[in-house]
Design brief:
By secondary structure, this protein is of the alpha+beta class. It is 51% helix and 12% strand. The protein is rod-shaped. The protein starts with a helix and ends with a helix. 12% of the residues are buried.
Length: 137
């Protein structure tokens, strides 16, 4: 529908206002619905509420033991399971210390989430230091 028709209609309806919104269509239920709802709410109530953003900033990090296949062959399955258990304990302890959240483990790797990038970096450095103590990178 041409925008001019909307303007013309708003001029013929008492107390109507015309607001042209961004977007490529006239669908009120798709795209940036918040912009549409804000305009309707302000027209009906005379006020516009501040909306909380629905986005979250997070830092995602993935860990992986360097050359784990080679190390397994070197030390044997039993010793590797012990090293892996120690690794997991170190990672989880440092995650708790730095506010990280374990999302998922895959093999010898961890997928983790932090609210702050600096916490993710500090945690990674602490994990590297602690793992060096048990011979892992």
């Amino acid at each position: 529908m041409p925008v001019e028709l909307g303007r013309d209609l708003s001029e013929k309806v008492p107390q109507a206002t015309f607001t042209e919104l961004s977007g490529r269509d006239h669908l009120s239920f798709a795209g940036d619905v918040d912009e549409y709802i804000d305009e309707v709410e302000e027209f009906l109530t005379g006020e516009r509420r501040e909306r909380e953003p629905d986005r979250v900033l997070a830092t995602i990090r993935f860990t992986d033991i360097v050359e784990s296949t080679r190390r397994t062959a070197e030390v044997g399955d039993r010793r590797w399971r012990e090293l892996l258990a120690s690794h997991d304990e170190v990672v989880r302890r440092e995650l708790a210390r730095y506010g990280g959240e374990e999302v998922k483990t895959v093999g010898d790797g961890f997928l983790v989430k932090f609210e702050l990038p600096a916490s993710a970096i500090r945690c990674a450095l602490a994990i590297q230091t602690r793992l060096a103590d048990i011979g892992l990178k």
